[in-house]
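Incident log, structure service

09:12 report received: a user says their structure output differs between two submissions of the same chain.
09:20 pulled the input from the user's history:
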Amino acid sequence: MPFINSKISVKISDEQEKELKTRLGQAISVIPGKSESWLMVGFEDEYHLYFKGDDSKPTAFVEVSVYGSANSSAFSDLTGEITDIFGDVLGIAPDRIYVKYSATPDWGWNGGNF
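09:34 re-ran on a clean worker, output below:
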């Protein structure tokens, strides 16, 4: 039950959004037990992001929420995947991307909790 939400400073086209969604769906599998079949993805483009006081370069803030416990090694691997994906698709440099992880033992779906 992962959710990846991205705040992106640049406009993304429908084609870019679909490519991001597809590649994030593949990348989520680096976290044991996670797959695209339960992945929810959201994008907020043209978001006003300032990094180091500067908004002149493409920037992204990516939040990854997962059901279960934290897996620092897998999260580190996913950060590499995410920076590659956003770099390839949107031209955002890895040093302009923050990735935040949160893991929770409580996750609701379909009127109840897992």
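09:41 both user submissions now match this output. Likely a transient worker issue. Closing.
09:42 reviewer note: The mean pLDDT is 96. Residues 72-90 form the longest helix (19 residues).
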